């Protein structure tokens, strides 16, 4: 379904980056490491094809996913 959306809307050039990054991003969204604001920034950068060159955004992502898990006993 996602591939169809990308194809029909002229985004096939970014499909490789989208699928590569979204697998990891979706995991960290589910784990609660990535908030809505950061997810919006990530999606915008991927769809604008600026993600690979945006070091500031990658640093935000690194800081978000580097949070240690806290388990309650």
Could you list some keywords that capture this structure?
73 residues; mainly alpha; Death-on-curing family protein
Compose a concise summary of this entry.
The protein is an all-alpha fold and 73 residues long.
Query: What is the residue-mean pLDDT, rounded to a whole number?
Result: 88
Q: What is the H/E string?
A: HHHH
Point out poorly predicted stretches.
none
Tally the helices: what do you get?
A: 4
Content of β-strand: under 5%
Total separate domains: 1
Distance between the termini: 40 Å
Helix content: 55-70%
Report the biggest beta sheet as strand number plus sense, adding barrel if it closes: none
Spatial shape? globular
Structural category is mainly alpha
Q: Over the alpha carbons, how many angstroms does the gyration radius reach?
A: 14 Å
Work out the number of β strands. 0
Outline the structure in words:
By secondary structure, this protein is mainly α. The chain has one domain. Helices cover 63% and strands 0% of the residues. The protein contains 4 helices and no strands.
Give the topology, please.
Layout: H1 2-8, H2 15-30, H3 36-47, H4 55-65
